[in-house]
Structure formats: structure tokens, C-alpha cells
Write a structure and sequence with these properties.
Layout lengths: L4 H20 L3 H22 L9 H7 L5 H11 L22 H21 L3
């Protein structure tokens, strides 16, 4: 079976571009979710390159499984992990909808976190 790690990384980069475009139109909750998805796919690219599989969506779980202990990356994963469920569903909040809870600062941080994770993951892919 062919390894598809570069397919995972290519989609990670597309998801990150989607996040940036969503920032331009102020869809901040979608920026945060797309940034989380980009980071998740980048980490899964590394796992795939090592002939592994991951069924979790927890960035923190996956990145620590890879042996990464960089504090900045760990914190980026923790921040992005909060963006898997909450940006998509109103029932994550006691009232209102996700678009009322996300701001430009949140979105910009999510993009920066995702970029850092993608950069690290590109350096860790095993050919």
C-alpha cells in the first residue's frame, strides 16, 4: 500500500489557505476550525510517513505520541484542540452561536499556531 503522507500535507496546506481566506471575510470561527484541521492533517502526514495511522482528532495526543516536546508546539496544539468542536456547533455554548464567540485575535492566533505545526511537521516527514 502506498504511503500518502504528501497528500495529507497538501490538504493541510489547502486547509490553511482556506483559514486565511476566511480571515479576510471575518468568518473567525471558520478560521479557527480550518486552522485546527490544517494542523491535524499535517501531524497525520508525519504519522502516515512512518507507516502509522491515527484515529484521534487530538493534536496534543498525536504530537506527543510523535515525541515532540517543544513547549511552543505543545501549547499551539492545546489551543487548536479547542477549535475542533466549538467553532462548529451552537450547543458548545450556553447561548448564542459560534460566530459570536470568535474574534480576529483568536483567528490570527489559530493561523499562527497552525503554521508553526505545519512547519515542524514538514521537517519530520520520513521519506
Amino acid at each position: 500500500m502506498a504511503r500518502r503522507h504528501w497528500d495529507w500535507m497538501a490538504q493541510a496546506e489547502r486547509d490553511l489557505e482556506h483559514a486565511k481566506k476566511s480571515l479576510d471575510i471575518q468568518d473567525f470561527e471558520w478560521v479557527c476550525f480550518a486552522a485546527q484541521q490544517a494542523a491535524e492533517k499535517a501531524i497525520k502526514a508525519v504519522i502516515e510517513s512512518k507507516n502509522g495511522k491515527s484515529k484521534t482528532h487530538s493534536l496534543l495526543n498525536m504530537i506527543t505520541t510523535l515525541g515532540v516536546n517543544n513547549e511552543d508546539i505543545i501549547h499551539a496544539c492545546m489551543r487548536l484542540d479547542r477549535n475542533y468542536f466549538l467553532p462548529r456547533y451552537p450547543n458548545g455554548f450556553s447561548s448564542g452561536y459560534p460566530g459570536q464567540y470568535y474574534f480576529r485575535k483568536d483567528a490570527e492566533q489559530a493561523i499562527a499556531d497552525s503554521e508553526a505545526i505545519i512547519k515542524l511537521c514538514k521537517s519530520k516527514i520520513v521519506e
